[in-house]
Amino acid sequence: MKTVLMVAEKPSLAQSIAKILSRGTMSSHKGLNGACSVHEYTGTFAGQPVHFKMTSVCGHVMTLDFLGKYNKWDKVDPAELFSQAPTEKKEANPKLNMVKFLQVEARGCDYIVLWLDCDKEGENICFEVLDAVLPVMNKAHSGEKTVFRAQFSSITDTDICHAMAHLGSPDHNEALSVDARQELDLRIGCAFTRFQTKYFQGKYGDLDSSLISFGPCQTPTLGFCVERHDKIQSFTPETYWVLQAKVNADENRTLLLDWDRVRVFDREIAQMFLNMTKLEKEAQVEATSKKEKAKQRPLALNTVEMLRVASSSLGMGPQHAMQTAERLYTQGYISYPRTETTHYPENFDLKGPLRQQSNHPYWADTVKQLLVEGINRPRKGHDAGDHPPITPMKAATEVELGGDAWRLYEYITRHFIATVSYDCRYLQSTIAFRLGPEHFTCSGKTVLSPGFTAIMPWQSVPLEESLPTCQCGDTFPVSEVKLLEKQTSPPDYLTEAELITLMEKHGIGTDASIPVHINNICQRNYVTVESGRRLKPTNLGIVLVHGYYKIDVELVQPTIRSAVEKQLNLIAQGRADYRQVLGHTLDVFKRKFHYFVDSIAGMDELMEVSFSPLAATGKPLSRCGKCHRFMKYIQAKPSRLHCSHCDETYTLPPNGTIKLYKELRCPLDDFELVLWSSGSRGKSYPLCPYCYNHPPFRDMKKGMGCNECTHPTCQHSLSMLGVGQCVECESGVLVLDPTSGPKWKMACNRCNVVAHCFENAHRVRVAADTCGVCEAALLDVDFNKAKSPLPSGETQHTGCVFCDPVFQELVELKHAASCHPMHRGGPGRRQGRGRGRGRRPLGKPGPRRPKDKMSALAAYFV
DNA sequence: GCAAGGTC
């Protein structure tokens, strides 16, 4: 029997499609990567009985990047990234082993049916899948078609079965347009980002962002925030006047009338209107009207609307809201949360999900009433052909979910119930008055039936007292006419919800990527989230955008995306050549890049005003090995040391504190050592600022401290302080932390394992001898007289921390900062440890300590 | 260390 391989874009879709096509008869098992499942069943294909294997990828299989050597920032001119730098496709998520997984499943298959999402990205993934599986599938007989594409617009029985019966072919042009998009985004984004970052970080010490990034989506996103900021800044308040009149409706009630002219901006004219009306004793009714109006129930919920409400009403940022929604989805509480669709398919079972909610403590009554009296048809929304709107899939209580998960679930459920509820109906009454020559109106709303607002109370029509009944020609006594002086007020900072709307409108990002772009501009310190989730640009954000305004406004305009997308659509439609479009667009941006580089002084002028040059930032900390003057420690991200005399900058490890290390010097370059520490519960190690940036030995890399230094004789080096191989990771060595006393620690120089060894020793040294059993270096310890754990009050002991019975008792293994007790020393508690690969119990370390001192020595003299 | 797009 032949085998048909079928591949969907994500595990959940593979499951639902297989369920539909197999009519529930499939058997499932997990694939080798643990993330994807394979669903198998038998059926017919092209008129013959076959075996079906339905599985999925997890989004893109591959990602585009530059060849390794072009990722060295200090060796490559960013301008080269526009054409010379070659790119390669790498596995998007190496942990998932997707290519291997697909090949294992595809081996021996005869046909493939591609069930990827029906958009351009999906079409591109089709070819990523084909590249992986075609080499291992059975070869086709000549002329036989073996590759098929399913075209579906919703995940319903009819649609899926129809797609299966009308298979087509994958569209190469659509896939190519995505290839072009990837290459453009990569080359343009990286070139501008690297140039800006290097230029400004080399000049200023207080930018407070480790990266000055640029991208065709994130930059216009920032642009919207700064545009609003500029509007606020340039706003000048204007004074205006409003004529306010009150009439007595009866003895104890007055009506406030709205002036038909609303407001005037000229004081004298306002005064004139007041003079014309203030002596009037009565207001005459000119007309009355009563109109029944409806407030429409909401459209079914899609991702973007959910994110808007989450931000504006629940105070949850888009990134957080999305993560919460994903968790609700994987736990089965809601349907797939990434969808653009606001329209339920015709045969969608609306009553099922509704029935599940009929015993819910918060909305049982509303739901029961709907089920008894009949639900309303949801409004006609937009069908993007991806997934049904976001719908609750099972009932849940506040206690069960708790916190933000509950609040989001509650909103989704209330919204869903609202979509099948009736519109809110209310009566709008208006009375038009005349006071002398001027016209006024008074209007009020009375709710006739609350409809969906019962389940979405925040949407209710506010309760108002009804207007008095009256007729044309009636008069009411005037109680007061006065002039109010007011001022126009500036707009407020953009809310996240408004930003999402703007991004959606201009096609910046997608439902899945909008939260990422917003998160990016926050993390890069371009904007901060203020109360009410309003986005206020920082100085850095403002200067960047104003700089683009000065140099090339197109770099920050939202059209930067849509213009490119227009070109890409030509590729997708087969109306333009992929190579030509790519070449042309790259050429345009290459010119823009060169112009930007040549004009960077324009942006720099703005930077100067807000930021301080490197030489003027930071505090003197340690001495430079070249000029022996103090270098300044710049704490702002990225933290570094700057020698203003030599005009050199030395980067330091991120996240942690830096102190001078006892004025000790590196024997290689005479730089004063500094001590990096991740906190009291973490680890610390000394490092030489020069060696950290310029590795001294061949077997060392950039970013290594003394605890990884292979110097054979320096007292701070790995060679001198290394004790034994790490008990968890493959390549790390546990290194004695000479600053950790009196609570002595050894820390792995690769992973975050920390071994606490002696609490009451005043001196611990790494001895020259090694353990005969495990080859770890012996430790030479002087304990405090009063608290010595040694028998008969001895204070001095030399032994192996891993094998010596006295020392073993004193060792405790932890993880830096997190402090999970992974190990407690002492016999009798060893069972059950050592889960996972490559971990050895502390009692049995593997081969240890850098042994090959001769080769390190040789490297030293290179 | 960089983009944006999938998804886990």
UniProtKB/TrEMBL annotation:
Residue stretches making up the Toprim domain: 3-153
SMART domains: TOP1Ac, TOP1Bc, TOPRIM
Catalytic reaction annotation: ATP-independent breakage of single-stranded DNA, followed by passage and rejoining
Residues annotated as domain Topo IA-type catalytic: 171-593
InterPro entries to which the protein is assigned, alphabetical: Topo_IA, Topo_IA_2, Topo_IA_AS, Topo_IA_cen, Topo_IA_cen_sub1, Topo_IA_cen_sub2, Topo_IA_cen_sub3, Topo_IA_core_domain
Keyword line: DNA-binding, Isomerase, Topoisomerase
Similarity section: Belongs to the type IA topoisomerase family.
Record region (Disordered): 821-854
Gene3D superfamilies on file: 3.40.50.140, Topoisomerase I, domain 2, Topoisomerase I, domain 3, Topoisomerase I, domain 4
Function summary: Introduces a single-strand break via transesterification at a target site in duplex DNA. Releases the supercoiling and torsional tension of DNA introduced during the DNA replication and transcription by transiently cleaving and rejoining one strand of the DNA duplex. The scissile phosphodiester is attacked by the catalytic tyrosine of the enzyme, resulting in the formation of a DNA-(5'-phosphotyrosyl)-enzyme intermediate and the expulsion of a 3'-OH DNA strand.
Superkingdom of this protein's organism: Eukaryota
Basic residues composition bias: residue spans: 821-851
Protein name (Swiss-Prot/TrEMBL): DNA topoisomerase
Known EC number: 5.6.2.1
Organism: Echinops telfairi (Lesser hedgehog tenrec)
Broadest EC class assigned to this enzyme: isomerase
